[in-house]
């Protein structure tokens, strides 16, 4: 016991000042209803668990950012993408039930290789409208002399390519640059109409299916779409529909506009990509390796594009990430993108290429999609509130019956705890984005039991001390000193469980752990700074220290025939 | 309340005592039986995993209460089965609470899922606001379970360390953990036997039980530690002191369990009646069973086991021995005093009297050799027979009135 005189009143006043400040902050924040979780207000939640071993916190963050831009780009407002634990990404869309977004979120291979018809810097092919069917690109059978794989020559582009982008990547071959030039350089576009962006009719003619010819002869509709298209401000992904079978108008992150052919190689045909500094070079480069089908297609592309100023584009999620020219014919599927890369750029590009859209993989088996209709949400909210009210009420009634006068302390403490909980939930939903979910409500209700239990431990101790012959006032203090340690230990275990649960649980059950931990902390605060001072204060009243029948500490409710010696009465 | 309070007092003072520690084999046997049944259920019936663990799609239509009946469910089953989608050919349709119907199918693709959703809405006439759905990949639950197991392991290690640090007795950690395992096995067994679906919410509930079970055990052990801190001074055996501790905290245990179970029971009630199947029910059921088992195990398992484990410690053995001697002495306090007979020699050895049975030996044990008398200067303190203890008055203020000669003149 502290040597100085214990002043319960002061503690309580400070405690209530703290509560008032908390509510003042809530008033400042301005919202008096907590943010509700999806299961209480309706909405869609998609949880994805990354598969594979090489999931790092960074790649998870990167994936979350990519998913965020995808979802918010698909016309959904206020979608929230968060990471949980080490390998879970959670997408939450409050208020809307759109399970079909799962496809948007998880789609993986959005990496495509297309050839470029025209760009903002080189709009020549998109100038006018003509109809000149082209000779098919001559697929020269001349075999390259040395099919060596390591002889990368990232030299200056012999084709004098004027790739206008800042980072100007070039493609050098894994072979000699002795391929024949293929494809006419005719600049007349063909006439097949095909608006590229939205819901276009199937393009007529088979040129769209022959991108290498279409490239030089884009159909007027595509050209028109190209001319009408406006790139979004820098840094934002263009909102385009990336349909592999259709031409595409899109931009890169520098705001350069491209008209692209239908997809020629899918990202799935890419076997590997890695960044490194090739021999005899000082600049970073990205090495690509295609699989069998990809190699064939790429050979064809490189033959066609070699010695032209035409580029081909690597398109990721509808956005051009790189548009190199060809400075060699590559038949073995091992290409290299060179240019003025920094290490970070090269690594980022190779990462994008390697993983498709996302730096980590989400397999179908590890996805949970949940939509909650507003009706169910309303039901769950009212059910949660009903359970809470019922539980709180019954606990209060029980305590009143059993502890009578002391029951008032229990009631007051529970109310104060409830006020604190309310204030903290509001503050946390404002500051930390905490949303009250159904399991969270359950956690708070279970917390009522924990809170009431510490009072029981305390009061039973007080009674025991009185049975030992101490007076009420002495028993309150000595009982407190014994109950305090017990409660601290027990609450520490409880808190430990909540923290471990919070760290290791996935999904909504984290809300439960959070609420449980929160109510345990509040229990401790209320127990130390409210309940104990209250009891000490009440012990000064005759009703309690004289053992009135209603005090809950009279001889009868202690089970004694009379007060032991030493007690008043 | 009067009788309960009376019981509380009697239990506290030890006038009434339930022999928790002494009859430990009975409690062990009861628990072993329950655990055996639980394990049997687990092995025999297996756990009914929810779609969160098996993967699949679940649709929940909220309907007016008068529409939620078996007929509607049957209609829905036929409607969904009639969609020509392979994975939805045998849907499981159940009513859930009194406000919703639940339809579960195998995993579906996005378009299939939309078709099924539309079918359900057409068949019931509900609006899309009333429909909730979850689609869960087949390995999702495995991931959840793996993380839960990891959490379990971390938690157990931390708790062992915590209890060891708090009580400074590893045997308490062991006893608490055994009680914990007991609770968890019983809870899982109840799930297996009752056939309730196990969902991630259940797993959460079970992890929460860990905390609760330990919470109870910690409170009881705290009292055990307090009572057994001074075995010699309290002239008790460890088992008796521990038993008294359990009895003394029994009222608290009962009250706690009531107060903790009331809210959980409310959640369970509301979850089952209003919402039917769902995370609320799963959570509350696991908590309810686990908490009840936790209170039981802290009283009937943890403490007897602790006393059992402690029974071989030298200090505990010594206390037992003393207690035995004390009891023997108390049975007949004057056993050593010879009964008086008429012709008893005045200073003779005891046992010479003919009426004393069992003491026919001519030489009864002599009195212990006397300690040397005080001699020389000053006082010679007798050798202590046992270590000096704190007196019963220790800690309390004693009157310290100086002798008159020192008080000075008034």
Write up what this structure looks like.
- The complex is a heterodimer of chains A (569) and B (410).
- With 569 residues, chain A is an alpha+beta fold.
- Chain A folds into 3 domains: 8-35 and 373-558, Multidrug efflux transporter AcrB transmembrane fold, CATH 1.20.1640; 43-107 and 363-370, Alpha-Beta Plaits; 111-355, no CATH class.
- Chain A has 15 helices and 15 strands.
- In chain A, the strands form 3 sheets. In chain A, strands 4, 6, 7, 8, 11 and 12 form a 6-stranded antiparallel beta sheet that branches.
- In chain A, strand 11 (312-316) and strand 12 (319-322) form a beta hairpin.
- In chain A, helix 9 (374-403) runs antiparallel to helix 10, helix 10 (405-431) packs antiparallel against helix 11 (438-467) and helix 11 runs parallel beside helix 13.
- Chain A is elongated, with a radius of gyration of 36 Å.
- The two termini of chain A are 26 Å apart.
- The model of chain A is unreliable at 128-206 and 563-569 (pLDDT under 50).
- Chain B has 410 residues and is an alpha+beta fold.
- Among the domains of chain B are: 28-49 and 141-318, Multidrug efflux transporter AcrB transmembrane fold; 56-136, 2-Layer Sandwich (Alpha-Beta Plaits).
- Chain B has helices at residues 2-13, 24-44, 51-54, 70-81, 110-124, 140-167, 170-194, 200-228, 231-234, 238-275, 279-310, 314-331, 404-407, and strands at residues 48-49, 56-62, 92-96, 100-105, 131-136, 197-198.
- In chain B, the strands form 2 sheets. Chain B has a 4-stranded antiparallel beta sheet.
- In chain B, strand 3 and strand 4 form a beta hairpin.
- The longest helix of chain B is centred in the middle third of the chain and has 38 residues, at 238-275.
- Chain B is elongated, with a radius of gyration of 34 Å.
- At the A-B interface, strand 15, helix 9, helix 11, helix 12 and helix 13 of A face helix 1, helix 5, strand 5, helix 6 and helix 8 of B.
Number of domains of chain A: 3
Structural class of chain A: alpha+beta
Work out the helix count of chain A: 15
Number of helices of chain B: 13
CATH topology of the domain at 28-49 and 141-318 in chain B: Multidrug efflux transporter AcrB transmembrane fold
Q: Supply the CATH class of the domain at 28-49 and 141-318 in chain B.
A: Mainly Alpha
Q: Architecture of the domain at 28-49 and 141-318 in chain B, according to CATH? A: Up-down Bundle
Question: In CATH, what is the homologous superfamily of the domain at 28-49 and 141-318 in chain B?
Answer: Multidrug efflux transporter AcrB transmembrane domain
Report how far apart the termini of chain B are: 57 Å
> Spatial order of the strands in the main sheet of chain B?
3-4-2-5
| Mean of pLDDT of chain B | 78
Please state roughly what percent of the residues of chain A sit in beta strands, choosing from under 5%, 5-15%, 15-25%, 25-35%, 35-45% or over 45%. Answer: 15-25%
């Amino acid at each position: 016991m502290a040597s100085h005189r214990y002043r319960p009143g002061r503690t309580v006043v400070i405690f209530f000042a703290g509560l008032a400040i908390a509510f003042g902050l809530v008033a400042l924040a301005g919202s008096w209803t907590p943010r509700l979780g999806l299961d209480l207000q309706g909405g869609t939640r998609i949880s994805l668990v990354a598969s594979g071993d090489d999931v790092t916190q960074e790649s998870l963050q990167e994936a979350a950012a990519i998913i965020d831009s995808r979802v918010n780009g698909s016309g959904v407002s206020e979608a929230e993408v968060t990471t949980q634990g080490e390998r879970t990404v959670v997408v939450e869309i409050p208020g809307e039930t759109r399970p079909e977004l799962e496809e948007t979120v998880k789609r993986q291979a959005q990496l495509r290789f297309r050839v470029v018809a025209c760009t903002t810097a080189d709009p020549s092919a998109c100038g006018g409208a003509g109809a000149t069917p082209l000779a098919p690109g001559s697929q020269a059978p001349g075999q390259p002399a040395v099919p060596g794989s390591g002889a990368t020559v990232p030299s200056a582009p012999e084709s004098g390519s004027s790739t206008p982008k800042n980072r100007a990547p070039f493609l050098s071959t894994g072979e000699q640059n002795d391929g024949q030039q293929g494809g006419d350089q005719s600049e007349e576009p063909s006439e097949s109409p095909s608006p590229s962006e939205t819901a276009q009719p199937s393009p007529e003619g088979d040129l769209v299916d022959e991108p290498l010819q279409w490239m030089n002869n884009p159909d007027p509709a595509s050209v028109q779409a190209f001319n009408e298209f406006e790139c979004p401000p820098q840094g934002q992904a263009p909102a385009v529909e990336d349909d592999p079978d259709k031409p595409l108008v899109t931009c890169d992150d520098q705001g350069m506009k491209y008209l692209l052919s239908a997809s020629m190689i899918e990202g799935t045909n890419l076997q590997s990509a890695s960044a490194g500094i090739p021999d005899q070079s000082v600049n970073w480069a990205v090495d690509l390796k295609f699989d069998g089908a990809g190699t064939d297609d790429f050979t064809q592309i490189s033959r066609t594009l070699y010695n032209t100023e035409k580029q081909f584009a690597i398109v990721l999620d509808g956005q051009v990430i790189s548009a190199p020219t060809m400075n060699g014919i590559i038949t073995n599927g091992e290409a290299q993108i060179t240019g003025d890369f920094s290490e970070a750029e090269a690594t980022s590009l190779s990462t994008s290429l390697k993983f498709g859209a996302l730096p980590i993989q989400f397999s179908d088996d590890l996805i949970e999609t949940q939509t909650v209709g507003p009706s169910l949400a309303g039901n769950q909210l009212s059910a949660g509130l009903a359970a809470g009210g019922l539980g709180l009420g019954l606990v209060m009634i029980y305590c009143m019956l059993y502890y009578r006068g002391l029951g008032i302390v229990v009631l007051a403490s529970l109310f104060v705890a409830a006020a604190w909980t309310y204030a903290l939930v509001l503050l946390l939903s404002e500051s930390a984005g905490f949303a009250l979910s159904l399991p969270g409500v359950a956690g708070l209700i279970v917390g009522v039991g924990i809170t009431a239990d510490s009072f029981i431990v305390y009061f039973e101790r007080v009674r025991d001390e009185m049975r030992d012959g101490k007076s009420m006032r002495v028993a309150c203090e000595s009982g407190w000193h014994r109950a305090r340690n017990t409660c601290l230990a027990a609450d520490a275990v409880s808190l430990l469980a909540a923290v471990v649960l919070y760290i290791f649980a996935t999904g909504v059950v984290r809300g439960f752990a959070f609420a449980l931990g929160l109510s345990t902390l509040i229990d401790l605060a209320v127990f130390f700074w409210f309940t104990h001072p209250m009891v000490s204060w009440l012990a000064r009243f005759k009703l309690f220290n004289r053992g009135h029948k209603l005090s809950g500490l009279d001889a009868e409710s202690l089970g004694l025939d009379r007060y032991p010696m030493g007690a008043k009465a | 309340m009067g009788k309960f309070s009376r019981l509380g007092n009697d239990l506290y003072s030890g006038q009434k005592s339930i022999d928790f520690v002494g009859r430990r084999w009975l409690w062990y046997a009861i628990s072993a039986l329950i655990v055996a049944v639980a394990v049997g259920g687990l092995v025999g019936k297996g756990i009914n995993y929810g779609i969160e663990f098996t993967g699949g799609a679940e649709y929940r239509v909220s309907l007016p209460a008068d529409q939620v009946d078996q007929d509607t469910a049957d209609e829905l089953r036929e409607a969904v089965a009639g969609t020509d989608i392979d994975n939805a050919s045998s849907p499981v349709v159940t009513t859930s609470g009194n406000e919703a119907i639940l339809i579960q199918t195998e995993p579906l693709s996005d378009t299939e899922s939309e078709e099924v959703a539309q079918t359900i809405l057409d068949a019931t006439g509900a609006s899309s606001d009333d429909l909730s759905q979850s689609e869960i990949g087949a390995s999702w639950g495995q991931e959840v379970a793996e993380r839960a197991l990891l959490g379990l392991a971390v938690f157990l290690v931390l708790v062992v360390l915590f209890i060891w640090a708090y009580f400074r007795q590893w045997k308490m950690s062991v006893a608490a953990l055994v009680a914990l395992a007991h609770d968890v096995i019983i809870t899982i067994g109840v799930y297996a036997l009752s056939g309730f679906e196990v969902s991630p919410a259940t797993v959460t509930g079970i992890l929460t039980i860990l905390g609760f079970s330990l919470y109870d055990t910690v409170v009881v052990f705290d009292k055990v530690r307090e009572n057994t801190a001074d075995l010699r001074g309290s002239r008790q055996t460890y088992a008796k002191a521990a038993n008294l501790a359990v009895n003394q905290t029994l009222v608290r245990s009962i009250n706690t369990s009531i107060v903790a179970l009331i809210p959980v029971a409310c959640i369970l009630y509301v979850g089952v009646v209003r919402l039917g199947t769902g995370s609320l029910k799963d959570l509350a059921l696991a908590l309810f069973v686990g908490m009840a088992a936790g209170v039981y195990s802290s009283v009937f398992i943890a403490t007897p086991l602790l006393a059992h484990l402690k029974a071989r410690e030298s200090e505990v053995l010594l206390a037992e021995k003393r207690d035995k001697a004390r009891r023997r002495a108390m049975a007949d306090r004057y056993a050593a005093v010879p009964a008086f007979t008429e012709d008893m020699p005045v200073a003779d050895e005891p046992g010479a009297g003919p009426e004393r049975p069992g003491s026919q030996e001519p030489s009864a044990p002599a009195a212990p050799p006397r300690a040397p008398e005080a001699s020389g200067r000053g006082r010679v303190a007798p050798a202590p027979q046992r270590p000096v203890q704190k007196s019963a008055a220790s800690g309390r203020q004693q009157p310290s009135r100086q002798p008159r000669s020192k008080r000075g003149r008034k």
